[in-house]
Write a structure and sequence with these properties.
10% strand; alpha/beta
Length: 304
């Protein structure tokens, strides 16, 4: 695992993969299958891994957190940045922060919550958690107006943010006043588009953010990396063609559930046995499985 301090250049060098977390039939984290996922991503050129929503870290047991961190640090290559998550509950996050402090991860992401929070309280919590971890944190903006830009500015001035994951879903990603306001107070090269390939071209080209995260990269890392390089090179026609290639699977994720579909798709693509999905989520249905198979077969048949 790469332990060097965070630099904004990392966000342009690799698509930030957001993989599922493989578990065995007893729901225990499975090192062998997670190793397969990470090796597959690294073989496709990925050098940044973010373990958060797709890994269902919202519901990870505190008793398994230290072993999870140890496993991720041991598996990842020396050139791969790994970003684990903590939270979303403050008390849980503080206990996790004490464990994180004993490891060499360059940063960690705070999972967002909409329950029993307010904006000033969020900002206070971020400061407290960054101090407990001993490093700036990734701020995950998943909900519209979740944190006022002026509070983001104050957190940036206090040095407690490493980078921002912006993942507010819009019907038209080109029309996003909140993202514009965030960009007024936070450096664009330290913001990533956090909703996969679908809005990435608009976010990088039109808003100037530094990079993007992806779940579908876990199915086709080379394709996602090609898309990232095409965007940075200004070849937007090539990037659009790749974006459209990912659409069959992304449409299923949007229509069913992004976490559940990706978790099963990685298994159906014969990358790794991801096992059961962590409660409080249920697995996809048999009809969903058939749709995922069809999407994967279509993508494979049209790959070039």
């Amino acid at each position: 695992m790469k332990t060097a301090p965070f630099s904004a250049a990392q966000l342009r060098e690799s698509v930030i993969a957001v993989p599922p977390l493989a578990r065995n039939s007893s729901f225990a984290i499975c090192e062998q299958e997670n190793r397969k996922i990470i090796r597959f991503l690294e073989a496709g050129g990925i050098r940044s891994l973010l373990y958060g929503g797709n890994a269902v870290l919202y519901h990870t047991r505190l008793s398994e957190y230290a072993s999870l961190l140890q496993m991720l640090g041991d598996i990842a290559s020396e050139e791969t940045v790994v970003v684990p998550s903590l939270g979303p509950a403050f008390g849980l996050a503080m206990d996790q922060a004490a464990i994180l402090r004993e490891h060499d991860f360059p940063t960690a992401m705070l999972l967002p919550s909409r329950d029993a929070i307010d904006q000033v309280g969020i900002a206070t919590g971020v400061r407290r958690l960054a101090d407990a971890v001993g490093k700036p944190l990734v701020l995950y903006l998943k909900f519209d107006r979740w944190l006022d830009p002026e509070l983001i500015k104050s957190l940036e001035e206090d040095g407690v943010i490493s980078w921002l994951k912006y993942a507010v879903v819009r019907d038209d990603p080109a029309k996003d006043d909140y993202l514009k306001e965030v960009l007024d107070v936070f450096p664009a090269d330290r913001i990533v588009s956090g909703i996969g390939e679908q809005p990435a071209i608009i976010h990088l080209r039109d808003f100037g953010v530094g990079g993007f995260t992806s779940g579908c990269v876990c199915i086709a890392p080379e394709k996602s990396m090609q898309m990232m390089r095409a965007i940075h090179a200004g070849d937007f026609d090539a990037a659009e063609a790749i974006r459209e290639w990912f659409c069959p699977l992304e449409d299923l994720r949007n229509g069913i559930n992004p976490i559940k579909v990706l978790h099963r798709a990685v298994e159906l693509a014969a990358i790794a046995d991801t096992g059961p999905i962590q409660p409080m989520l249920s697995d996809v249905t048999s009809a969903d499985v058939a749709g995922i198979r069809d999407a994967l077969q279509h993508m494979q048949s049209t790959a070039s």
